[in-house]
Amino acid sequence: MSTILVTGGTGTLGRLVTERLRADGHEVRVLARHAQPYAVDLIRGGSGLEAAVAGVDTVVHCASTPRGGDERAAAHLIEAARRAGVAHLVYISIVGVDAVPVGYYKAKHAVERQIQESGLNWTILRTTQFHDLLVRVFETMGRLPVLLLPAGVSDQPIAVAEVADRLAALAAGGPAGRVADMGGPEAWTFEDLARAWLRATGRRRPVMTVPVPGRSFRALRAGGHLTPGNAVGKGTFEEHLAGRYGGGAAAR
């Protein structure tokens, strides 16, 4: 079995990828800012990164932050991987990074280009948003007396466990380039998603949709972040809500 480094290996996705790879018999190293013995801040780089990649066959790059710095982190990782002779770099990206002009998406797209031009053998998987992200958004919005949602926007959430399974399989295989996108089983309007969350949590809030101007929301309304032709996910948002909140969300 191979030696695999998972960046962001303590995060929502990276932790599950690590578990699956270890269950399959791989030696897995976890790189994260506070995860010994490979506690590394990728944005800053440093000597710890050299030790983390030494002797590694494959890197699964899950570390990412919307607060900025992904491109610098990727540059440090790519440089270290080249020096160490890493045979395969796997990257998790987002559906629509080349279509939706949001800052975080632009950064993810830039990292894709860095990897493609790195000289390393690579695999890139784009997926739609995780169920957990939508729940966090609604929990934050639910602190207000009214849920204000962008009009005309849908989402196609996917179970993070399914993405972890796919990433682990890709890491165990050979470099495959840009593989098929991976989307959740169906696209829902934000209003329907919010109402499902309200039912599951037993909360009562008025839901209002408002038109939001700008290029980013125009791209979202056009479905630039969706992949209906790749709706391969099985777990639904309602199933996720039922498992998280211990009840059953009624049919929408």
List the helices and strands and how they pair.
Elements: E1 3-7, H1 12-23, E2 27-31, H2 47-53, E3 58-61, H3 70-84, E4 88-94, H4 103-116, E5 122-127, H5 131-141, E6 147-150, E7 154-155, H6 160-172, E8 177-178, E9 188-189, H7 190-201, E10 207-210, H8 215-221, H9 237-245
Parallel strand pairs: 1-2, 1-3, 3-4, 4-5, 5-8, 6-10
Antiparallel strand pairs: 7-9
Helix pairs in contact: 1-6, 3-4, 7-9
Radius of gyration: 19 Å
Q: What percent of residues are in strands?
A: 15-25%
Low-pLDDT regions:
248-252
What is the structural class? Answer: alpha/beta
Q: What's the CATH architecture of the domain at 3-128 and 160-178?
A: 3-Layer(aba) Sandwich
- Shape by Cα distribution: globular
Report the major sheet: 6 strands, parallel
**CATH topology of the domain at 3-128 and 160-178, what is it called?**
Rossmann fold
Mean pLDDT: 95
CATH superfamily of the domain at 3-128 and 160-178: NAD(P)-binding Rossmann-like Domain
Query: How do the helices and strands follow one another from N- to C-terminus?
Result: EHEHEHEHEHEEHEEHEHH
Question: Tally of extended strands?
Answer: 10
Write out the strand line-up for the largest beta sheet, numbering strands in chain order.
Answer: 2-1-3-4-5-8
The CATH class designation of the domain at 3-128 and 160-178 is: Alpha Beta
Number of helices: 9
| CA(first)-CA(last) distance | 46 Å
> Fraction of residues in helices?
25-40%
